[in-house]
Specification:
The complex is a heterodimer of chains A (521) and B (165). Chain A is an all-alpha fold and 521 residues long. Chain A contains 22 helices and no strands. Chain A has a single domain (3-501), classed as Sodium/glucose cotransporter. In chain B, strand 6 (124-142) and strand 7 form a beta hairpin. Chain B has one domain. The chains are: A mainly alpha (521), B alpha+beta (165).
């Protein structure tokens, strides 16, 4: 058992739990809006980095490394899309969604959809689909955490998994979104330092970038090609488009990621957040892929390519550095898992429990229901993760493809297309989810060379346009929704108008009127 | 016994129908029990201000309003009023006098101008044309929540009246 690595991990866990406790003391669980959206007061740097770390996940240290190890430079197609993802996300929906969600008084990404496309069915379907997919996604993070920690520390897999899950649940429990956002910020820095450290060690070991590329050429020239090992993807532009899309525009459809927009301090935060995200992405995103690509030179006979980054770190770095790197890897996993857990609990509590089961639930009740669900999902996830389902890469690609395909047009059109109506959105979500699911289940990619994400997004987008136009006269977008969409497109401060019923602070007139009416009674 | 009063009411465009429509979009699942309206008192002043500017003094006019219940002051747009007879039960009682309102308006305007021009200027403020004006507020009482609606701006605010309200 590696005690130095364990020591570093303990320090890391103490820090994240400390942030969770700080968030609790600073009103992270004060009321529902604080617990679910951090009181909508998150600044640009934290917003950018929580969005990026949430969307990156353990995939970056396991899936990305594994992909680079197997396919060589072809894997960088994913990185290219990913680098631009943050700025695209903030530019396309950031400011408008922040404004519109507050005007609607929406606290979750699914509630926002229902307010924009008024329909109980839409909320039920979207909520159920999201809970199922995010639950599945959490599972991938648990497996990544357990596998990685067990390998590097020597702790048995079930215990390593239990420790990781317990820490995540504890700080999510304590401070809600505020804890998640600030731990994500801290974790983003740890991730960046960790991954750059391994990369520098790899380049040092191989004698620099050029020497490493020459060695790759000697080993297998096709690893340097943009068409994958043995040119397996040659001419398959559909697959390439999928790789580019999934982590660039794909983000726009992930409810656990778009929630970040709703929690921003103000709509104008989106602009600076976009810049922060791009800078961080430029340094972080390509690195795990490159480590994976070069790992084939350092460890040519690996049986599990997804462990490439762990194994390289273990081999090249001293124990203390491995501890820090391990903390970085755990950071990537935990920063996604906490957001997924919180979102799954939130959506299940607010969008399903409160909306359809107990509409009179109080704010405190709602927080506890959400916490209970977080715990339940964590326990179920833990036991399923013990069974080690399919590879992390497959699980992540599956869930993100289905989520992105289902929700991308719904979120983008919500703020950009006034004619997008309820039947359009509902059918688009269903069409996108089903297309992406069956595309993968029936392995249609192998026949068509078109990635599930591409098929899913094309299907959901065309359905949205077609159905919205065909049903426009029978189901027009309600006038008040149109007014708020117009308001959200304007660059000016948010009027207090429709969000007022959710506010706790009363204006002086309201206070006086309350007193007056109280006396009358 | 209820008595009628002749008051000046700030003219408003927001109809009851419009208010019900907007409110129903927010509290869609709630049942509307009752709609009532009340008149809220303000003191309204036109102020002539003089501030130091280069070697002279610059003059300008500004309007201020003081909440006659809480004493809070604010700048205000121009508005027109209409005379109306309303029952006493719909009028909120004034809690401050015109003299107090003048002091509060003056103090507020000095702060406001200091903030606006980023100066610590020595302003001369002359308040004139004091007027009492009432603004109409709608109160919509739903089964689970009550809200008040400003008849001029159609802004909403939640009221904590309890379930019986």
């Amino acid at each position: 058992m590696n005690t130095t690595v364990i020591f570093f991990l303990i320090i890391y866990y103490i820090v994240v739990l400390g942030i969770g406790y700080w968030a609790l003391r600073n009103g992270g669980s004060k009321d529902l809006e604080s617990y679910l959206l951090g009181g909508r007061k998150i600044g640009p740097a934290t917003t950018a980095l929580t969005l990026q770390t949430t969307s990156m996940s353990g995939f970056m240290f396991l899936g990305a490394g594994g992909l680079g190890y197997i396919q060589g430079y072809w894997a960088l197609w994913y990185a290219v899309g990913d680098i631009g993802g943050g700025v695209l996300n903030f530019s396309i929906i950031g400011r408008r969604m922040r404004k519109l969600s507050q005007l609607f008084g929406a606290l979750t990404a699914i509630e926002y959809l229902e307010k924009r496309y008024p329909s109980g069915a839409l909320r039920l379907i979207s909520g159920s689909l999201t809970v199922f997919l995010l639950g599945f996604y959490v599972l991938a993070q648990f497996i990544a955490g357990g596998k990685g920690m067990a390998l590097v520390t020597g702790i048995p897999y079930p215990i390593a998994l239990a420790i990781a899950v317990t820490v995540i649940v504890l700080y999510t429990f304590m401070g809600g979104y505020l804890a998640v956002a600030y731990t994500d910020f801290f974790q983003s820095l740890v991730m960046l330092i960790g991954v750059l450290w391994i990369f520098i060690a790899v380049l040092y070991e191989l004698g620099g970038f050029t020497a490493a590329n020459n060695a790759l050429h000697t080993l297998d020239p096709t690893l340097l090609s943009l068409w994958g090992k043995d040119l397996g993807f040659e001419g398959q532009w559909g697959v390439v488009a999928g790789a580019l899309l999934i982590f660039s525009v794909g983000y726009l459809g992930w409810p656990h990621v778009v929630t970040r927009h709703m929690a921003m301090k103000s709509p104008s935060t989106a602009r600076s957040a976009g810049a922060w995200a791009t800078v961080w992405n430029l340094f972080f995103v390509p690195t795990p892929y490159l480590i994976g690509i070069f790992a084939v030179l350092i460890l040519p006979n690996m049986t599990d390519p997804e462990m490439a980054i762990f194994q390289v770190a273990n081999k090249l770095l001293p124990a203390a550095a491995t501890g820090l790197v391990m903390a970085a890897i755990m950071a990537a996993i935990m920063s996604t898992a906490d957001s997924l857990l919180l979102q799954t609990g939130t959506i299940a509590a607010r969008d399903l429990y409160e909306r359809f089961i107990n509409p009179n639930a109080s704010e405190k009740q709602m927080i506890w229901v959400s916490r209970g669900l977080v715990l339940a999902i964590a326990i179920i996830g833990y036991f399923i993760a013990l069974k080690e389902p399919p590879s992390i890469f497959n699980v992540v690609i599956f869930t993100t493809s289905v989520l992105g395909s289902a929700f991308l047009p719904a979120y983008v059109c919500a703020v950009w297309w006034r004619k997008a109506n309820t039947p359009g959105a509902l059918s688009s979500i269903i069409a996108g989810a089903l297309t992406a699911f069956f595309w993968q289940y029936l392995e249609i990619t192998a026949m068509t060379s078109i990635a599930p994400m591409v098929a899913g997004v094309v299907s959901s987008t065309s359905t949205m346009i077609l159905v919205s136009l065909l049903t426009q006269s029978k189901y027009p977008v309600p006038q008040n929704v149109l007014e708020l969409i117009d308001e959200s497109s304007l660059v000016r401060s948010i009027p207090s108008l429709d969000s007022a019923p959710l506010k706790n602070s009363l204006s002086t007139e309201a206070l006086e009127l309350e007193r007056f009416l109280g006396k009358k009674k | 016994m209820s008595q009628d009063n002749l008051i000046s009411v700030i003219q408003h465009d927001v109809s009851q129908v419009r208010i019900e429509k907007i409110a129903s979009n927010i509290l869609r699942s709630d049942e509307l029990l009752k709609i009532s309206h009340f008149y809220y008192p303000y003191f309204y002043f036109k102020a002539d201000c003089k501030m130091p500017f280069l070697y002279g003094r610059k003059s300008f006019a500004i309007n201020a309003m003081v909440d006659a219940c809480s004493g809070h002051a604010a700048t205000s747009d121009l508005f027109t009023t209409e005379r109306k007879v309303v029952p006493e039960g719909q009028l909120l009682t004034k809690k401050i006098t015109i003299e107090t309102a003048q002091i509060k308006a003056k103090r507020y305007l000095i702060d406001h101008l200091n903030r606006k021009f980023r100066t610590l200027g020595n302003y001369d403020i002359l308040l004139d044309n004091e007027e009492e004006a009432y603004k109409l507020f709608w109160v919509l009482e739903y089964k689970n929540q009550s809200i008040m609606v400003d008849s001029v701006t159609d802004e909403f605010e939640a009221l904590k009246l309890g379930k019986s309200a």
